[in-house]
Design goal:
2 domains; 10 helices; 9 strands; elongated
């Protein structure tokens, strides 16, 4: 009975005194992504802090029937989580579209409860306009507020968070090797979580000091063997 009451709240959304804040420019980018995906369901995850959704990472839909369902792959979610860690944010909400314009349903609540996300955002595509819903895991609809941040702040959010401005020209060989006129770009594009930890340690030290692999391992919290593999890739 308790489960039925929670799911019924999706049909008749209640609102708590808590607003989800999204920059208007980010809203426009997400709605463009939804339009380009018609007639299939598309989605991704929002990164942010607390109730502020600051960055959107689109993730491929791996469902068999992409017209009626949206599913993500664990590997794609790991990439999004790595981006969140690199930018000092966290995954706040999962998002998917309803290309037929329908509102949220019990199926959307079941989808949200099957994820690790705090919130689930549904963008109902109604043609010229789109309606946004943001559920918590109790099925309560959180009101969405649009902030008027500058578009440049949204577009450059991730770059500023991790200190990037320009990666230069980058090419990928048929064998998968990254070539770039900017050595920094080659390093950053090949980063995994271990590499990011090592890089953070190195950038936090004085330029004149070059620590041993044992010191890096201690400061980064990973093994010396993993540090050795990272250093080999970063050469």
């Amino acid at each position: 009975m308790r489960k039925e009451n929670k799911e019924a709240s999706v049909r008749f959304p209640r609102q708590k005194d808590r607003n989800m804040i999204i920059a208007a420019a980010l809203r426009d980018l997400v709605e463009t992504h939804v339009r380009l995906g018609r007639p299939l369901e598309v989605g991704g995850v929002f990164l942010g802090e607390a109730e502020r959704l600051m960055f959107f990472v689109p993730l491929p839909n791996i469902a068999q029937d992409k017209n009626r369902e949206y599913l993500t792959h664990i590997d794609h979610l790991r990439v999004a989580d790595l981006i969140a860690k690199m930018s000092g944010l966290q995954i706040i909400a999962g998002m998917h579209s309803h290309p037929n314009g329908t509102v949220v349903s019990e199926a959307d609540l079941r989808w949200l409860r099957g994820t690790q996300h705090q919130y689930g955002v549904v963008v109902a595509d109604k043609g010229k306009e789109m309606e946004w819903f943001c559920l918590n895991k109790d099925g309560v609809n959180q009101p969405v507020m649009w902030s008027e941040e500058q578009h440049e702040m949204v577009a450059l959010l991730l770059a500023r968070k991790i200190g990037l401005t320009d990666l230069g020209r980058v090419m990928l060989t048929p064998k998968g090797e990254v070539l770039s006129e900017n050595p920094e770009a080659r390093t950053l594009l090949s980063l995994d979580e271990d590499a990011w930890k090592v890089r953070s340690v190195l950038y936090g030290l004085e330029k004149w000091r070059w620590p041993t692999k044992t010191e890096i391992a201690k400061l980064s919290g990973i093994s010396v063997d993993r540090v050795r593999k990272v250093m080999k890739r970063m050469k």
